[in-house]
Design goal:
The chain is of the alpha+beta class. The protein is built from five helices and three strands.
C-alpha cells in the first residue's frame, strides 16, 4: 500500500560541520533520518516543507538503499540496517516523527500544528505524572509517615524509555558504527 511521505528542502552540515554544508531537495522524512544518523541530529537545518510524495515503504527503502548503501560493506548499509531493519521495515513518513526541533526549520517554515517527538514525549510524560500524583480523595497519602533519623540516600530514578529515546539509541548505535 502506498504511503504519503512528507518531503522537504534542507541544508545538511556534513559530519555536523556548519562550515561544510550542502543543499538537499525533495528529502523524505525517511531519508532525513538517515542523514541524521550519518551526520548528527543537528546536521539538518533550514528545513522547508515541500509537499509529499506517494510511494510504498519498500520503494522508499529501495530508493534510500540506492543512494546511501551502494554495496553491503558501505557505512550507509550499516546505518540503514540499524535504522530500518528487515525487508519490510516501516519508514518514517512525517517530519514530526523525527528528532527535529522547531529551530531546525527555516524561519516561517514550521508546519502548522508541528510538534517534535521530544515535545510530544515531554507532554505525555507530564500528563502521566499528573495522573499518578492525583488522589481522588484529595488526601495526603504520606501524612502519617515520620522522617527517619538517618535517611537512606535516594534511590536512582528508574530510566524511562520512550519512543524518541529508543529511536535516538538506534541513531547513536548507527553513528557509532561509522566511527
Amino acid at each position: 500500500m502506498a504511503e504519503n511521505f512528507e518531503i522537504a528542502d534542507m541544508i545538511v552540515s556534513l559530519g555536523g560541520d556548519i562550515n561544510n554544508t550542502v543543499p538537499r531537495y525533495g528529502v523524505t522524512a525517511a531519508e532525513c533520518a538517515v542523514l541524521q544518523a550519518i551526520h548528527g541530529n543537528d546536521a539538518v537545518n533550514s528545513i522547508k516543507p515541500a509537499g509529499s510524495v506517494r510511494r510504498t515503504n519498500r520503494a522508499e527503502k529501495a530508493r534510500i538503499v540506492a543512494l546511501y548503501a551502494p554495496n553491503e560493506h558501505s557505512n550507509g548499509a550499516k546505518v540503514l540496517a540499524r535504522l530500518y531493519p528487515g525487508a519490510a521495515a516501516r519508514m518514517f513518513e512525517r517530519y514530526d516523527e523525527l528528532e527535529i526541533s522547531e529551530s531546525q526549520f527555516a524561519p516561517g517554515c514550521v508546519p502548522e500544528g508541528f510538534t517534535s517527538s521530544a515535545e510530544q514525549d515531554a507532554r505525555e510524560d507530564a500528563d502521566g505524572l499528573a495522573a499518578v500524583g492525583d488522589d481522588e480523595a484529595g488526601e495526603d497519602l504520606f501524612a502519617d509517615e515520620q522522617p527517619a533519623d538517618d535517611p537512606a540516600p535516594p534511590a536512582e530514578a528508574p530510566k524511562v524509555t520512550t519512543t524518541s529515546t529508543r529511536r535516538q539509541a538506534k541513531i547513536d548505535a548507527a553513528s557509532g558504527a561509522l566511527a
